[in-house]
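agent> Task received from the user: take the single chain below, predict its 3D structure, and emit structure tokens. No templates, no multimer pairing.
agent> Plan: (1) validate residues, (2) run structure prediction, (3) serialize to tokens, (4) report one or two observations.
agent> Step 1 OK, no nonstandard residues flagged.
tool_call: predict_structure(input=
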Amino acid sequence: MDTQGHQRLQGASMGFLAGYVDTLGFAALFGLFTAHVTGNFVLIAVALADPGQTPTLLKLLAFPAFIFGVAAARLLVAGCERRGKPAVKPSYLLQLVLLSGFMVCGMLAEPVGRNVGALAMAAGLLGAAAMGAHSAASKLLLGHLAPTSMMTGNVTQLTIDTVDRLRGAADAATKARCAKFFWPVLAFALGCAAAAFAFMALGFVALAAPVAILAWHLWLPEPVAQ
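)
tool_result: status=success, residues=226
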């Protein structure tokens, strides 16, 4: 696979993964956003104002768990750089381990009732940590791609560039940006839809899909330079 095809595949598959995990966490764990820090700030505020409405502790701890995932990914990347080794596949492995923990703890916690037990709590925090590692890896290692877990900025940029193309003011860079941002946005939306249906049908075992995506990327050969 050439470099351009590999990058397009990375962007789309990681966007699908982020949308999938975030939606499954929301559906399974009382509206928890594992990848969406902005949404969790809102949920924390609502939970503090009305503690009886949603499980407050899980929402409060999701933010530090996300930070832990970011920090773990940063230390991993720094360690790889210090040894002169590529860090992309180790970052995928870190996400795979955390997401596998999310899936296993969730499966053991089923059925999740209205009260968050220890296993359900662990599932949510591992999911948040996994997506923190995902976001950090995206920023540290995949800067040539559009962000794969923060769609607000992507949709804004894609809309600006699309308007410029429609009014005939687009240059080659604008057209390239449209392709760069379009596929992760589409894949994220498809991931959200897939997770909603998969969780309803399978429960936490549906997390096998993003785990398989990461395992596939670990196996996938590096792109051929052109």
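agent> Step 4: summary for the user.
Helices lie at 3-28, 37-49, 56-82, 88-109, 118-141, 151-166, 172-202, 208-219.
agent> Done.
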